[in-house]
């Protein structure tokens, strides 16, 4: 990666360390152990513009908090008939091989 890219990642990382606790927790759910890769993904989406990438990530994290995305599976689907109908109609099957990279 170019020096400018590394500098952008460092700046973005520094901004992420300043987050309050709910946003930090949500960011941990988003990156799932790959914080640097997640930051790079947002930076690439905004052509390595740190302020724009930061705003995009903050919008994403705030949306997840407002909509309870990180706890959506903890709540049961009521009524249970609806859950069974959804489960039974969304059957998925995959065959084949994935390409090793």
UniProtKB/TrEMBL annotation:
Residues 35-60 form the CRAL/TRIO N-terminal domain. It comes from the Eukaryota. SUPFAM superfamilies: CRAL/TRIO N-terminal domain (SSF46938). It holds the Pfam family CRAL_TRIO_N. InterPro entries: CRAL-TRIO_dom_sf, CRAL/TRIO_N_dom, CRAL/TRIO_N_dom_sf. SMART domains: CRAL_TRIO_N (SM01100). PANTHER family: CRAL-TRIO DOMAIN-CONTAINING PROTEIN, OS09G0258000 PROTEIN. This is Os09g0258000 protein. It comes from Oryza sativa subsp. japonica (Rice).
